[in-house]
Design goal:
This protein is mainly α and about 475 residues long. It has helices at about 10-25, 35-55, 85, 90-105, 110-120, 125-145, 145-165, 170-185, 195-205, 205-230, 240-250, 265-280, 290, 295-305, 315, 320-340, 345-355, 355-360, 365-380, 385-395, 405-415, 425-435, 445-470, and strands at about 65-70, 75-80.
């Protein structure tokens, strides 16, 4: 490859401007009426073209060659690949693809709807209890599914439940709290959100380690968010006997078995979900599997579940978020070009100065600044480019897996999504569900309601990272 120190500063600044342009276009995705995969794809193609114009990649006889293992045995061999193939982190792509496919097929068993309705019945129609049950369910679903799927399941059931219970006046509060909790639940495991996957892979953080370190914060943040939400939106317990009896009768009309097509597949889905979580959690220590990684586990479980619908698997392929996968592939290419153009080194210099505040100011000031900055950035644009860029920089600087800087990126990228309705896909889905139920909430209206929650969560995360993860 080209010696990065030979890249002129002018060239680096040109590519830095392209990176800023990509971020700006992603921030105004709705305004320019283009999907993120198209935006990132255009920038990836342009970056690759300019990278060759400025000779950032080194070719042998006009071919880009890659060395395959074993590297140190003298028996390795060189293969020709397009430059953009090794630039893409295929492990991340496979993990997202496999996990999404597995969860989508498992949801067909009716398992998640069954859990949701069971909790609704357990609340006996009491609004405060229902908020706690739905809130906890949102966090758990966000941790084992994904934020968007969790919001769709819980949000849809919320609309139906509150209408049947005659509590439509509480729907705005319920949906907003659930939207905010999706991003808290997204912090619980290594595979709960895309930033977690990116940072976890770059830092070498195992599934179990990630869970152990993030769980205490998730528990406290969930409790405080639900308590604050109940107070802000006036969601209280039923007091009179008449109200309690009426609510109990209304809830008894819910049937948790409605979504179950086959009892056998229902239990098979439940068992496979448990095994999937266990396999993902132990992938780093299992013989053979530890060399194949979590992406292999996700693809293996997805394939097993596909056998249930082996003649109609195309229905599940159509539900895959191909826009996200395409965006990821293009983003990895852009970041690879930025690495060769020395843009990441340039950003790393600024990042190093922020980190140095830990020594000059003390008390983890630099770590705290990175967390808050990551949250602010994630609130107005996609948190994936930010996570990928910062993870690459921290990795290049040799940041050890135990350094709290990794966690400042994780917490900032996830919690920043709670500041605005465009900060995360799940908050956007929540606003869509609100509109479908006749609730009007503007951009600034969302921000005004969400700021107390986001400020509390980000402040709590900063204290947690600086005090307990140092």
């Amino acid at each position: 490859m080209t010696d990065i120190h030979a890249v002129p500063l002018e060239t680096t600044l040109i590519f830095a401007a392209l990176l800023v342009g990509l971020i700006a276009c992603l921030a105004f995705e709705d305004k320019i009426h283009a999907k993120k995969s198209v935006i990132a794809g255009v920038f990836a193609l342009f970056c690759l073209f300019l990278a060759n114009v400025f000779h950032l990649y080194e070719y042998v006889d006009h071919k880009f060659l890659v060395m395959l293992p074993p590297f140190d045995s003298g028996q390795g061999h060189i293969v020709e690949l397009p430059v953009y193939i090794p630039a893409i982190d295929w492990g991340v792509i496979a993990l997202i693809f496999g996990a999404s496919l597995f969860i989508d097929i498992t949801s067909k068993s009716g398992l998640f709807t069954w859990i949701a309705i069971k909790l609704t019945k357990a609340s006996h129609g009491d609004p405060r209890k229902l908020l706690w049950f739905y809130g906890l369910m949102t966090v758990v679903f966000s941790a084992v599914l994904n934020n968007v799927t969790a919001m769709i399941i819980v949000g849809s059931l919320t609309g139906v439940s509150l209408k049947k219970l005659g509590r439509v006046n509480l729907m705005l509060g319920f949906l907003l709290i659930e939207a905010l909790l999706t991003n808290i639940g997204g912090l619980l495991t290594l595979i709960s959100s895309v930033p977690n996957i990116i940072v976890g892979n770059a830092a070498g953080i195992s599934f179990v380690t990630f869970f152990v370190k993030s769980a205490p914060f998730v528990v406290v943040a969930t409790i405080l968010t639900i308590m604050l939400g109940a107070r802000m939106f006036g969601i209280a317990n039923l007091v009179s006997v008449e109200e309690k009896n009426e609510a109990r009768i209304l809830v008894s009309g819910f049937d948790e078995n409605d979504g179950i097509e086959s009892e056998g597949f229902f239990w098979f889905g439940a068992i496979m979900l448990i095994l999937f979580i266990v396999a993902i959690a132990t992938a780093s220590v299992l013989p053979v599997v530890q060399d194949l990684g979590m992406s292999f586990v996700a693809l293996a479980f997805a394939t097993i579940m596909l056998l249930r619908y082996k003649s109609t698997v195309d229905q599940f392929y159509r539900t895959i978020d191909w826009d996200l996968l395409g965006f990821f592939a293009a983003l990895f290419i852009v970041i690879n070009v930025m690495e060769h153009a020395q843009v990441l080194d340039l950003i790393g210099v600024g990042l190093a100065k922020v980190i140095s505040l830990n020594d000059t100011v003390g008390h983890g000031a630099g770590t705290g600044v990175i967390l808050v900055s990551a949250a602010a950035f994630s609130s107005v644009t996609d948190n994936i480019p930010l996570s990928a860029m910062l993870a690459k920089i921290l990795q290049a600087q040799g940041t050890v897996a135990t350094d709290p800087l990794w966690w400042s990126v994780v917490f900032g990228a996830n919690l920043g999504g709670n500041l605005t309705p465009i900060g995360s896909a799940s908050t956007l889905v929540a606003v869509t569900i609100m509109h479908k139920n006749g609730l009007v909430l503007s951009f600034m209206g969302f921000v005004k309601l969400a700021i107390p929650f986001a400020a509390l969560q980000i402040a709590l995360a900063t204290v947690y990272v600086l005090v307990f993860l140092q």
